[in-house]
## 1
Amino acid sequence: MPQSKKVPFWRSLQTKFAMTYILIVAAVLILLNTYPVMVSQDLAYRSKETSMQNQAAVLASALATGPEALTAEGAARTVELLLGSLGVTRIVVTDPNGLVLCDFQEGTARTDTTGQYALFWELVTALQGNDVFRSGYADGVFHSRAAVPVTYRSMTQGAVYLYEYDAEQGAMLQGIQTNLRFISLVICLVTLVMGVVFAKALTRRIALLLGAIRTVREGEYSHRVSMGGGDELSRLADEFNELTGRLQTTEEVRRRFVSDASHELKTPLASIRLLTDSILQADHMDSETAREFLTDIGDEAERLTRITEKLLTLTRLDTAPAAAAVPVDVGAVVERVEHMLTPLARAVEVELELRLQPGCLIAATEDELYQIAFNLMENAVKYNLPGGKVYVTLQGDARQVRLRVEDTGVGIPEEDLPKIFDRFYRVDKARSRAAGGTGLGLSIVWDTVRRYGGTVTARRREPEGTCFEVVFPRLAEKGGTQR
């Protein structure tokens, strides 16, 4: 028996399941660590844009009080008045040429930049008449810049520049990121543990099924798998148990069939060998005795032929595909069988009586239908009593065709009725052998009838004898069968 190869670790279902589980959770964690931070940054950006542009607009409106040009003193005085409410890190006010009029950083006026050109991009853009806002987040700090022009009646008098260094909101965002990373780490650890546990639980059940398959492969068809859960794997286990049950039944039937076939073939072979040994060992055997022995050998050879032919028929029914069905008149086939069996019936003093309804068509082959009728009617004749009768009735309705074969013989005991369609089963073995029976005729009938969608049953006939009834789907007028 070849040994099963061990699956490499990286190709095992357990590894694949765990890796798939981990990759899915990793993708979710990446999304968890990026999307909330991006949304928070965007909200902070929009909030600062609105706030700082409004603050810059308020300051620019306070500076633009008349047609006079902005002065350093006036600009500084106005900024000082609004400085407490603005809450920014730096405020710069310039004239139309970009010269710094006043510069306040963290609430303190700077004098080193007064009178110099402010070369900030935001201020240059604002002096061109545009509102500007720009914000960035780096190293846990928001850096935001806003600039607006100071205008009076569409005349640019200067520009206002605001800069905010916000470490507090940056720290909040950084705290969110830290918490998300911690949560992600915990989820990763839990996911890793759960992934391994789930993978082991899944593959343990699959390994149980795999081990059961190996056990059955070695011939132990009675092995069953017990698996709960109510999921697909438990359904698979149920299907496996059902399959092994069928295999066990098939194997038991096969072994019994081989044993019975061997026994049935061994008996005539032993008789032939005994008779031939008797002939060979007899030095002076008269011709009459020799002829008797040879006749017995011929009978046993004929019996071997019958057994072999019926075994071949059963093998063909088991393996070969069904022949193409054609419309067959059951009544015509039964009449042919009756014609063939009439000499045998007269020899054993049995009367055949037919009651056939015309026009009973089924879909089958004529040869196999002939075999069904022949086996049933021949048995009814062979196992009847002298002076007995065989009643063959054919009836049909809109859906079915019934063929009933009844005899007035000794009948079949009730306990034997469920077994009479088994191969090699005989109720009275001594009488069956005397009548030339093989125990295979009814098995052939059973298999052939089922092949064409019919059923066959047997029951005791009152007051005496046995009744066999075969039911076929009736052939429809256009060639189909009635269901």
## 2
Amino acid sequence: MYREVTALTGPVLPVVSFLGRLPTAMCQLGSLLLVAQTSGSLATAGLASGALAAGQTVGGPLLGRAADRRGQRGVVLAAALVNAVAVAALVAAALAHAATGWLMALGVLAGASVPQVGPLARTRSVALARRAGADDRTVGAVLSFEGTLDEVSFVLGPALVGLAATVAHPAAALLVAAVLLAGCGTAFALHPSAATVRPVTRDMSPMHERLPRSTYALRLTMALQGAMFGASQAGITALTESLGQESQAGLVYAAMGVMSAAAGFAMAAVPERFGLTSRWRAATAGLVLLSAPLLFVDTMWSLYAAVVVLGVAYAPHLITVFGLTERVVPARRLAESMAYLTSGIVGGQALALAVSGTLADRAGATAAFAVAVGAAVGCAVLSWVVRVRGGVPRGAEAVRVG
């Protein structure tokens, strides 16, 4: 099935889009480590990193909307170059021991200008598939492939930052991210596939098309998925510290990401008769059942076992929500909608990390993991309350709540 995907996109687009989205996974942790090291204050580092997340949460949908209206090429090109400069400026400001306000301002700019390569690559790949007359199973394989690229980037990105921080300096990782943004972001913007997604005309403004009510539920479930990421990260960090194994935190989180990526690749093998709504409910049930053991882990081996098993449920949920969104939103608002989902993950993760980190400091890792389980329950409730009828042409699904 993935041969059909690469036949649609060509071999260059996946490589360029993967390298172009890698800086997004590097900058969040990179900014935290850099500012913590240069300022000597975890509070300052948290403010700078939080400002970057806030900027991305707000700016992502706006950039996606601009891409829908004006086309991807010019929007991505401008964003990639601005983002590269903003990241480099943040590095320079941190090394110069700039005031917290300046670091936060640059963090907001760096977050808001993220070129949204992941969501826009999904939009392009789906457009290529639809233009070629591909069936829904092939479109599902496209989304599985794109979701797996995201998962791998979010595993590899922090790993590269950690390696650079250990071998050299966190600034090195962010400077590499800036180079990738300028080079691969530009290459993604100029790739011929950008012409596949045409900008809307003035009389076809996507803002005049109402979104189905389920769209907002899908955005909320993605924010809850991000909350699971943030709470899990806080719980893993707290437990490894209490066990005197702080250096294992990154490896534990990476193990969860690797398993999630493997599950994402396997999603292409799911039979087409198993519809998206059923997949959504099955995935959220998996999130609840597989996150519950986190409440009982108290050793390194049990932590590894619990998070690796939980990783099996992450990618199927993400990929299914992207698939449902692709199916129900108007085509001319697809880039904006995909960007909303990605921004929801970032925003939910940042908020949950702050809340669950505080809880972990006061009550231990179990309190942070309880936030993750609660978010999983919220996802499950949404999957049963929001009903989406499948099996009809793209964009024509009827949606009802109740």
